[in-house]
Specification:
Length: about 270
């Protein structure tokens, strides 16, 4: 752990001390009370310590989960901690409650927070890095460097850098995000996406149809070429091969049925 001094403002320290003292008093008073009175005391304990739960929830803000959801998770964890804390075991309530709340927040993120799920090792390091980053930022009055965070949480700097690059795993960048674009000013992320290349589909179609077309007679292949490659109308095709438009329509219908049957046979062979 880092040896950086973490002096809190006097008002914050005073409020925390008062809350801790009142919390201890209330827990002590639950020893000999009726169940109804105990419930009222536990409710007051929750209210007194809600700022602690909310503060822990705020450390996980802006990571892809609504703050209201995080606050709800943290407060429910606080309620559970208040109910489960045993005064006879000794110790300070917050020393017990804070890890419980943090654990619930981490579980919530593990289950619902990742848009792109990184390795478990990196997920676990992420919690430590962000806790250490928040603590150092408060103590230093600025964003800590990766080296300072690494020293604080006991991880190597490479792991810290890997964790700090995970923001997009929680909240992907919008396609409307503005990006620098050299001399032309700015562009959006969507502007840099590739376009659909129709040529690939055409090539695949030709590859599939080629052996089927090879089975057709010379006149049928000519009809297909004139109609679908050269783009002639049925009347124009009929003039070229010396038949009526109605006959061309029948020829095309027969050819298309043959091609459909051939495609069906090919699919069955691939599936076999």
């Amino acid at each position: 752990m880092s040896t950086i001094s973490r002096q809190q403002p006097a008002s914050v320290s005073t409020a925390a001390a008062a809350r801790s003292h009142r919390t201890a008093e209330l827990f002590d008073s639950t020893a000999h009370v009726t169940p109804r009175s105990r419930k009222q005391i536990l409710d007051e304990l929750v209210v007194i310590n809600i700022p602690v739960a909310d503060s822990l929830a705020s450390r996980y803000a802006a990571r892809g989960i609504p703050v209201d959801d995080l606050v709800q998770v943290a407060r429910l964890a606080l309620i559970k901690a208040v109910r489960n804390f045993r005064t006879e075991m000794g110790g300070d309530f917050l020393s017990y409650a804070v890890p419980c709340i943090r654990g619930e927040l981490r579980r919530h993120f593990r289950d619902a927070g990742w848009m792109v799920r990184p390795p478990r090792r990196v997920q676990e390091a992420e919690y430590r890095v962000n806790d250490g980053k928040a603590t150092l930022a408060q103590a230093l009055g600025r964003d800590p460097s990766p080296a300072e965070i690494a020293a604080e949480v006991g991880l190597d700097e490479a792991t810290v850098l890997e964790v700090l690059s995970l923001d997009g795993c929680f909240t992907p960048d919008s396609l409307d995000k503005t990006l620098p674009s050299g001399d032309t000013g700015t562009s959006s992320l969507a502007d840099r996406l590739g376009t659909v290349e129709d040529g690939y589909d055409h090539s695949e179609t030709r590859a599939v149809l080629a052996p089927l077309l090879a089975r057709l007679g010379d006149r049928d292949r000519l009809v297909v070429k004139l109609r679908f490659v050269d783009g002639l109308t049925q009347r124009e095709v009929g003039e070229r091969i010396g038949v009526t438009q109605m006959q061309v329509s029948r020829i095309l219908s027969r050819i298309l049925d043959q091609l459909r049957d051939g495609l069906g046979d090919a699919e069955e062979l691939r599936a076999a």
